[in-house]
Design goal:
4-stranded antiparallel β-sheet, 7-stranded mixed β-sheet, about 120 residues
Length: about 120
Amino acid sequence: QVQLVESGGGLVQPGGSLRLSCAVSGLRFSISHMGWYRQTPGKQRQLVAAISSGGNVIKYADSVKGRFTISRDNAKNTVYLQMNSLKPEDMAVYYCTQGSNFYAPNDYWGQGTQVTVSA
């Protein structure tokens, strides 16, 4: 059974930081492309960041470049999203995903974790 379990969401003030983690089980993590999507009410889910199976290829949405960093630890079957300089428009439910397509790694989804950016 494939499981992606996110943690690390919460409430943060504008300009603050959060680190999301996603623990993965039930699949071969080391050969999996991983991603983080986010969704706000009434909008489509947006791919925020993706990282290749080996960690050597990374892409970001333009809106988060320079502020967010995706990384992975294949020894721990975990992917991370470090979010700095958070803005109110970053507020969303963030989903960890896995997929065979690096440009849309969305075969499997976690349950999501809420990130709230508010003063």
